[in-house]
Amino acid sequence: MTNNVIIVGAGIIGAACARALAVAGVEVTVIDRGTVAGGTSAACEGNLLISDKGPGHELVLAQYASTLWKHTVAELAEQLGDTFPSVEYDPKGGLVVATTVTGAGPLLSFAAGQRGAGVDAWTIDADEARRLEPDLGPAVEAAVYYPEDAQVQPTIATEALMASARLHGARVLENTPVLGPIHDSAGALVGVRIPSGELRAGRVLVAAGPWSGQVANLLGVYLPVRPRRGELLVTTRMRHRIFHKVYDADYVGAVGSDDGALQTSSVVESTASGTVLIGSSRQQVGFDSSLRVDALSEIAAKAIRLFPFLADVAVMRSYGGFRPFMPDHLPVIGEDPRMPGLWHATGHEGAGIGLSLATAVLIRDLMLGIIPPIDASPYSASRASLAPHLVDVA
Amino acid sequence: MGPRLFPFGVDPIRPEPTTPLTIILDGVPVAGVAGQSVAGVILAGGTLGFRRTSVHGTPRGVFCGIGICYDCLVEVNGRRDVRACQRRATEGDVVTTQHDALPPGGAAA
Amino acid sequence: MNASNIQVLVIGAGPAGLAAARAARARGASVTLLDSSDQLGGQFWRHLPPERPSAEERMLHHGWATFRELSETLEADDGCQIFRGAQVWAIERSPERVDGTAVGLPGAVHVVVGEPDGVGRQRLALRPNAIVLATGAHDRTLPFPGWDLPGVFTGGAAQALAKGERLAVGRRVVVAGAGPFLLPVAAALATTGATVLGVFEANRAAALVRGWLPNPWELVGAANKGTELAGYLAGHLRHRIPYRLGRAVVAAHGSDRVESVTIASVAADWAPIPGTEQRIEVDAVCVSHGFTPRLELAIAAGCALTADRFVKVDDGQGTSVSSVFAAGEITGIGGVDLALAEGRVAGHVAAGGTASDRELRQDRRRRRTFRGFAARLEAAHGIRSGWPGMLTDGTIVCRCEEVSFSALCGAAESTGSRSLRSLKLSTRVGLGICQGRVCGRTVEELLGRRLVGGLGDGVTADRRPIAAPIRLGELAADPVADVATSGVDEFDQRNSESTRGPT
Ligand SMILES: Cc1cc2nc3c(=O)[nH]c(=O)nc-3n(C[C@H](O)[C@H](O)[C@H](O)COP(=O)(O)OP(=O)(O)OC[C@H]3O[C@@H](n4cnc5c(N)ncnc54)[C@H](O)[C@@H]3O)c2cc1C
Ligand SMILES: Cc1cc2nc3c(=O)[nH]c(=O)nc-3n(C[C@H](O)[C@H](O)[C@H](O)COP(=O)(O)OP(=O)(O)OC[C@H]3O[C@@H](n4cnc5c(N)ncnc54)[C@H](O)[C@@H]3O)c2cc1C
Ligand code: FES
């Protein structure tokens, strides 16, 4: 098999994979119908979270990813130099607060389960929580501190990974949509059609975020990636008064849920520019990007419950994107058993920024035939939990 | 030198006498006229720069005058982020200039 | 639908909105007219507050009688409900077409009513049968070294403070930029007691002649405009204000406020010509290079735009979204008479009439005339491509986030990005509280010009789903759905002092 790959999608997943493969000497061509960092990776938050993941395969991937971020950020800074904007990596830690008595029990048992899986999760009392976050409101029924939670600026991280990939020889074609597959006589995928003609390679990796289902469809297979809309609020700049990532404990419930209806949970944190970012909603409304005031209202109300002083703070902007949702809540990483030459790195839902570096290592090792540092089979397209969803029912 | 209210005695539009009011800017009383904006009172009081920016700490004041640029933000009676050019001054308004330092290690663009 | 069952919501009470409200009422529709300001009149008829009655205020205005007639009639009309201090902060759109534009009437128009930037303002969610967008424009100022110093104003600021408060922004003032709007700005300053040291128009006589002369007879139709400009010019002569072509303010100087400016000759493309600099001591400088339409509500409603980025309208001022109409500066910069004519057509059609109705005959004709006039203004006074020649590395491009020209170029170069969204996020340009209103188009131009093939992500700086800041506490509160039962009317009366703000 030839040593070249086409990556469809120049979000953070495509960028991380392009970099890992290019560094390993693979000839990489990234194509995107828009631009680098023009999709979900520029319309999200940059949380690198451990705290929201219960024991299971996603947690394993996140734990592995968190071992990669620190030195990758240092490598990128060194390679790209001072003029490149900072990726704003900040291991600031997360504080999860149960604001209701009924929420306290589930939070504490969730944390206990996580500790069993090796997560640093410190149960602290309300006073300790207020020492970490002096402006917390009166409703603190239970609190858990997660020192491993960190963040990056996701757009800059995507640009930095892609810039580094380019320096290692990757080629990036923007404004280049995939139009269809090129198959060999045996039915293996050997390239894609693009507006200017054909692009051939030994492997095609789909990393098209929430549009991965569409791209897979164009290439001839069904993949159940669906968009799950999320909206966020950005406040005006203010004095620094929120020091960690602070979540309402109901965040944990919303992430794992299958419900398509509107759900919100409060995630509050300051950014490096002095604004406060408040997320977020989860809702399955297709690719409808229109503003939903009811969603914003709910997010606002929950944020005020955590930090009452926010009631007088002004929101200046909202934005949102589409999480690449998978029905069994795990990303798909690896070759598609149904079509030789077709690979996937997608379906990371609300954790694609954090999981990007780990995903890239798995893809690189699987493509190069090396045994990956963590077991890749739970994320395979042929895993049992995905099988019932691979039949196109729509 | 600087901004000033047109002395009403010489104004050809023949205004009726105005009603004075006073606001407190960073603890100092500033005299104005009923119906003026907070920005108008501050400007006529001789202060052009009444906010300090977050990155370079340089002074700012009124730029667009019509609520577009948000350069004139002040705190009025304890509420932040009020456009001084959009808010009418009322007697005794306590106006505080704003300066929001970036968080430690914050992005300096 | 019977016109009397139609509820028309008019957003913006400038010339276009007032005319629209009036025309919709004339057809029997019930009308809700709202504006974020506590006064009617918009930018053009900005006037003194009721606390400052003046016998001859009309001297400061053109068409003052028209304004008084429109506003007094609407205020006295029970079928027209007027909300002052009413900020539309969001419009929810109906489902999208594939091209991203909306199909039908938006979901709800979200408003907060109360003191400007207040806390605990009343929230309304309105669902009218038809909407007329008349949100106007604001002046556009290109960056130059020192433009962030206090004492540098837009022309609009000087105009607004002069008309609305009788305040001159300085004693020794220079007015510069481009366009006929510089003249009323200078006149307003001069009639408020300032000494205007000069008006500097960047375009040269040749451009002005090319723009004005191809169809001089059209000017006859635009008689009002002609008179107005003639009036300003006469005023200038009276006050002996020099009017210079082909010159620009290329820098403002001072430590914590402007103390002087550098004026230089500029080439036909506006690039400064080295060696022509001249320094003038001033205590204020007013700079405007044209106008930018306030498009955020139209975009939120899903309205399609024209290639030169105004709201696209048909003969009846209808936008691409059915039952949503647009009038005034958001459809093109053309001055007050065009705004009035478009407003009348929009209001009439929104209330169930058709564009070809007899009563609109005169308005259709005026609209044609003044649109021709507007096109020539743009040809004569439009921004030319050499203006970035004024920028130095350290010139602030984005005032809110203090992003310098070199920081912007550096990020574009080092990331190699062609995505406006990405470049905004990596430099913070346009991400501040004005949401790119001041720098958005400038940044698009600077980046688009530097990046081969232009920006590749189709993102524009005009999209602002949240059109004005809203406090989280207000956002968390439930809106009142029905104007009739909102109680805002009484609220408005009760708090008439505190709901007032001089937009
Ligand atoms: C509101 C919100 C908040 C979030 N918060 C976090 C968080 O805090 N932490 C975290 O880890 N994750 C978060 N996420 C999730 C994260 O953003 C995503 O998982 C991640 O960005 C996905 O990256 P991607 O590269 O797979 O997709 P994208 O960034 O969407 O990239 C896909 C690319 O594919 C391209 N493409 C699509 N179709 C085609 C085609 N036919 N041909 C060519 N190219 C095509 C697109 O143009 C796009 O550039 C959040 C998401 C949202 C919506
Ligand atoms: C500061 C300024 C001064 C001007 N002076 C002159 C002049 O002297 N001579 C001249 O020929 N032209 C002048 N112009 C040009 C002027 O814009 C037009 O001639 C005319 O006023 C346009 O009328 P309009 O109705 O389209 O818009 P405008 O008069 O601008 O009215 C729009 C109204 O919509 C309101 N609005 C906008 N968004 C919202 C929202 N989200 N919620 C609620 N309300 C909203 C605004 O408060 C405003 O009152 C000036 C423009 C500006 C910006
Ligand atoms: S001066 Fe621009 S918003 Fe007040």
UniProtKB/TrEMBL annotation, chain A:
Any GO CC annotation of this UniProt entry: cytoplasm
Gene Ontology terms for molecular function: oxidoreductase activity
Keyword Oxidoreductase applies: yes
Keywords: Oxidoreductase
The keyword Transport appears for this protein: no
Residues of the FAD dependent oxidoreductase domain: 5-366
Pfam families on file: DAO
Domain of life: Bacteria
Gene3D superfamilies, sorted: D-Amino Acid Oxidase, subunit A, domain 2 (3.30.9.10), FAD/NAD(P)-binding domain (3.50.50.60)
Name recorded for this polypeptide: FAD-binding oxidoreductase
Organism of derivation: Cryobacterium fucosi
TrEMBL record, chain B:
Top-rank taxon, per record: Bacteria
Region span, Disordered: 89-109
Protein name, entry field: (2Fe-2S)-binding protein
GO MF entries: iron-sulfur cluster binding; oxidoreductase activity
Protein's UniProt keywords contain Oxidoreductase: yes
Keywords per UniProt: Oxidoreductase
TrEMBL record, chain C:
Domain FAD/NAD(P)-binding, chain residue ranges per copy: 7-341
Assigned keywords, A-Z: Oxidoreductase
Protein's name in the database: FAD-dependent oxidoreductase
The keyword Transferase is assigned to this record: no
Taxonomy of the source species: Bacteria, Bacillati, Actinomycetota, Actinomycetes, Micrococcales
BFD-like [2Fe-2S]-binding domain: residues covered: 396-448
Keyword Oxidoreductase carried by entry: yes
InterPro entries referenced in this protein's UniProt entry, alphabetically: BFD-like_2Fe2S-bd_dom, BFD-like_2Fe2S-bd_dom_sf, FAD/NAD-bd_sf, FAD/NAD-binding_dom, Metab_Enz_Cyan_OpOx_G3PDH, Opine_Oxase_asu/HCN_bsu
GO molecular function: oxidoreductase activity
Lineage top rank: taxon: Bacteria
Pfam families: Fer2_BFD, Pyr_redox_2
